[in-house]
TrEMBL record:
Highest taxon of source: Bacteria
Transmembrane segments: 21-42
Keywords: Membrane, Transmembrane, Transmembrane helix
Organism (species): Rhizobium mongolense subsp. loessense
GO BP: any one term: carbohydrate metabolic process
Identification of the protein by name: Divergent polysaccharide deacetylase family protein
Keyword field contains Membrane: yes
């Protein structure tokens, strides 16, 4: 009782400092985590991704790379089949409707021996029918003239209208004088069946435009060249008429002037020309030039004194003769009767050729007759299909 209150208490144990202990534990955890992270980063456990060498990455093709086809495929009979894309010159062009057209032209083949080819490649792709094959043209002072291509392809082959190939009854109908009348030309292209061949007069108007429209519509076309008739100059076919009194050089010059008016035609057709066609001396150099350019010649059959056949055989010129003038009488019923006669000739001989002018009555009659011709077993073909070709007898 003699000491102050609380000063005589026995000394006891001190309470542990909880905050200090927590700090120590947290420090130990951080040290442990950091040490483990450093260990895993430095150790090689096989899980590290290895980067490919630069050379390997460059050699690997991208996923969108198109693999080129083999140059040849093996046919079932062991004969190599030519791939249309192997060793080919490839051209791509955009047409008027925005579609892309790919054009393949052949290069010399390195392989030896025979190869199967696609026979359906004869003719022109319909999507490109209004566009000339540049390899079949040469520049001249008179415009672009037709020539045989480096591979031997002729304009008469390139621009010919395809047909079935069946040796049935075939008829070719040629409507001439296009380009002389705008309304008549427009109606002929619009209303005539595409199997009908159209012949454009060299002295016509807007020929390039009409040619393109006719080709887009599927027609095979010819170019009409003015030749001297018996009653010239009272009956004048037009400027640059080929005359028996002119030199061969002058006549060929006028021929080239006419040829340069349009492209994409398979051959030449006479416009009048009774006197010229009856004179072999005047004809021979002209027909030889036509043949060397890979074209055919159609004689409209209006001259009984024509020497076309003899001259054509002597110059190896592909040629054809019209069997009938269909519209000597410009009347629909009369023309229909002539078409029936043409059909009888075709059934007797296997083929026949009829020619007409672009009169409204002719267009109406030909359109009407053509609608039923197929049901009677008649195939209407382009004029090139019925030409006599010395190179393909």
């Amino acid at each position: 009782m003699h000491a102050p209150l609380g000063q005589n208490r026995k000394a006891g144990r001190k309470r542990p400092n909880i905050l200090r202990i927590g700090r120590i534990a947290a420090s130990l955890c951080l040290i442990a985590i950091g040490g483990f992270s450093l260990y895993t980063m430095l150790s090689d456990d096989g899980l590290q991704r290895t980067k490919p060498p630069v050379a390997d990455r460059a050699a690997s093709p991208p996923t969108d790379t198109v693999q080129k086809p083999p140059t040849q495929s093996q046919a079932a009979n062991g004969m190599p089949r030519s791939d249309p894309r192997s060793g080919a010159n490839v051209e791509r062009m955009v047409t008027g409707d925005g579609s892309v057209v790919t054009k393949y032209s052949p290069r010399p083949r390195d392989d030896h021996g025979p190869a199967l080819v696609d026979a359906m490649q004869v003719g022109q792709d319909p999507r490109m029918a209004a566009m000339p094959n540049e390899s079949l043209l040469e520049d001249s002072q008179f415009g672009r003239l037709p020539v045989i291509g480096p591979d031997g392809r002729r304009p008469m082959d390139q621009y010919a209208r395809p047909w079935s190939g069946a040796r049935g009854t075939r008829v070719a109908i040629v409507v001439s004088g296009l380009g002389l009348s705008q309304t008549g030309t427009q109606r002929a292209i619009k209303e005539l069946p595409e199997e009908v061949t159209l012949a454009f007069a060299a002295s016509g108007n807007s020929l390039q435009r009409w040619m393109q429209e006719a080709r887009r519509s599927g027609h095979e076309i010819l170019l009409q060249v003015p030749l001297e008739p018996f009653d010239y100059p009272a009956n004048d076919p037009g400027p640059e008429t080929l005359l028996t009194s002119k030199s061969p050089a002058r006549n060929i010059e006028n021929l080239h002037r006419a040829m340069g008016e349009i492209t994409n035609y398979t051959g030449i057709m006479n416009y009048l020309g009774g006197r010229f066609l009856s004179n072999p001396d005047a004809m021979e150099p002209v027909m030889r030039d036509i043949g060397k350019r890979g074209l055919l010649f159609l004689d409209d059959g209006s001259s009984a004194q024509s020497k076309t056949e003899a001259v054509a055989k002597g110059t190896e010129l592909p040629y054809a003769f019209a069997d009938l003038q269909l519209d000597g009488q410009v009347d629909v019923n009369a023309i229909l009767k002539r078409l029936d006669e043409l059909e009888r000739i075709a059934k007797r001989n296997g083929q026949a050729i009829g020619v007409a002018a672009a009169f409204d009555e002719s267009i109406e009659a030909i359109s009407k007759w053509s609608e039923e011709a197929g049901m009677r077993g008649i195939e209407i073909v382009g004029i090139a299909a019925l030409s006599t070709d010395p190179k393909n007898p």
